[in-house]
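It is worth pausing here to work through a concrete case rather than discussing structure prediction in the abstract. The textbook approach is simple: state the sequence, then state the predicted structure, then interpret. We follow exactly that order.
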Amino acid sequence: MVITRFAPSPTGDPHIGNIRSALFAYLFAKTNSEYGEFLLRIEDTDRARHNEKSVEVIKYALEWLDIYPANLHKPMVQSERLPIYKEVALKLVKEEKAYVCNCSKERLEQVRENQKAKKLPPMYDKHCRNLNLPLEDGCVMRMKIPENRKIELDDLVRGHVEFDSKTIDDQIILKSDGFPTYHLAHVVDDDAMKITHVIRAEEWLSSTPKHILLNEMLGYKTPLYAHLPVILSPAGGKLSKRDGAVGILEYKKMGYLPEALINFMILLGWSPKDESEILIDQDEYALKFNRTAFLPGEFKLEYVNKAPAVFDIKKLNHFNEIFLKNKTVGQLKDLVSDYGNFEVSTSEAELLKRGGFITLVEMADYISKLRQTPEYEPEMLVFKKSTPANTKIGLSAVSTRLSELNSWDETEIQKIFGGVVSENSLSNGDVFWPVRVALSGEEKSPSPIELLLALGKEESNKRIKKALELL
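Step two, the predicted structure:
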């Protein structure tokens, strides 16, 4: 049975890198084991950066994306387990696998300055390693890294990796405030949660030998590790807010669909066998994302790329536009109503359904703008191949016929336009163009038929009569 976890620190809104790790862990558990489990753990031992609201934000983000941990509403919380970590640390000291250190900050800073001057890597100099100091206030506990040891790792993404113990620091495992460091706490918790696979960011690869050693020291079964590639900007540098490094819920505010984000994140470092781009079935997603379009076993970690992934907002926009266009009129009506804080009509949703919008915010803004009386210069009403006289004839005839129309539907409106053109010996440009401008105030817009249906009879007639007055 595969058991994976997502273990964020509640220090702010989760960003795209955090959530991608959660997504990959979720997919791997759900598609590679019949009873695979995905769990949530809150790693809140960094009290200086702790943000109480962040826990709820993390849960809400996972729910919105439907990356659903089995223990979402009652996750493991590290700050509730402090006695356990202290007991484990004391056990390691007793077994001489760790030791008490009372070095002051001033001494440690001096050691670092001396190492820097000699161009040596910054490491603890093991001053307290063999002193057998008692545990007192202000002291920390450090793990005792074995000397002259080669530590090997068969990473599920990186392959075989070896580390020399002489390059590994005697890591602090319990701080002077009684809180454990990430290194000790997550190893203890992974064992308690029976985690089989740790799927996390590449930045943790260099710390993995410490975690392997801690598992050995504590007699735990070491989980399998997979380190995901870093996410870079399109220019190849560090991802910035301008490129997309914002909290994941910012994408919700901007009007991106959860399934579009999921589809986008899957491809940030992972490639399907058939090079498909659209990986999420919308009908399945609407039911429940844990019934994904992936076949059992398809999300294999060997398909994760070693090379950095590139965050390209254009790709996300492309996916979101596709998923929006595939929504039903009813779905669009509900979604855009939520974003615009106003009720969207079926006809307006049908207008949106024609496509050309990247986000739900764009859609809501468009409907809001459409509802406002347009402002334009009278000259815009005259098609470039028409005349003011013909334009006025066309608009007047359309206005009269539409006012008399009882059934406001596409077929009847189309008949009116065709009749006005043929009966008055006009061109399509004499009729369709000025109606389009009268309704939208724009030269480029949906067809006048679509606009008439979206605006309704009363508003449409009002705008066409205004155009006639301007002429």
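Step three, interpretation. The CA atoms of residues 378 and 471 lie 6 Å apart. Confidence is low (pLDDT under 50) at residues 285-292.
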